[in-house]
Amino acid sequence: GNSVTQMEGPVTLSEEAFLTINCTYTATGYPSLFWYVQYPGEGLQLLLKATKADDKGSNKGFEATYRKETTSFHLEKGSVQVSDSAVYFCALSSGGSNYKLTFGKGTLLTVNP
Amino acid sequence: DAGVIQSPRHEVTEMGQEVTLRCKPISGHNSLFWYRQTMMRGLELLIYFNNNVPIDDSGMPEDRFSAKMPNASFSTLKIQPSEPRDSAVYFCASRNDRGVTEAFFGQGTRLTVV
Fold this sequence. Notes:
- The complex is a heterodimer of chains A (113) and B (114).
- Chain A is mostly beta strands.
- Chain A has no helices and twelve strands.
- Chain A is globular, with a radius of gyration of 14 Å.
- Chain A starts with a strand and ends with a strand.
- Helix content of chain B is 0%, strand content 54%.
- In chain B, strands 2, 4, 5, 6, 9, 10 and 11 form a seven-stranded mixed sheet that branches. A four-stranded antiparallel sheet of chain B has the order 1-3-8-7, with no helix packed on it.
- At the A-B interface, strand 5, strand 6 and strand 11 of A face strand 5, strand 9 and strand 10 of B.
């Protein structure tokens, strides 16, 4: 079946530091890949997505590139802010007749001033 | 659009009582998901509906849990009887599968069973 593995947290960084959260996946066919963010007390919000190999998703300074050869979709940001503190989830959506969403376990990011 | 609407936002109930969580998906979306989130187990998919039909309920913990989607604009998740280990945040999400777009999440229902 499909699965998503992302780096375990928590991750603690200082403001303006570089962020990488690793994500790898196992899926049949050609899934779409997503990063969601969850701020404290809220639901998950889509941060960015990529629907085919070599696509780069980007939003709010975050980027991730769909790498089919390494089955990866790592999240990066060049300079994090305190307001980026949240839990980040990598996810995939398989194709065919079953469009089930599969999530990783989430990575807690804390950015200190 | 108001987004995915869940009610109630918070629910505190006594062990053994019946609990019903409600979800109104985004209009026009044809898939609906119920998830449970806890510190120990993270985000777990409980059940997935497509065009109001349950497609995958393998994540439903046990017979105490049931979910229905009587029409395209409403779904319920029921726990009867509830137990303290059911305490969690329950999320509903909906998606338009025509094009495999992202899922949109509600704000969640925080359930506490005492």
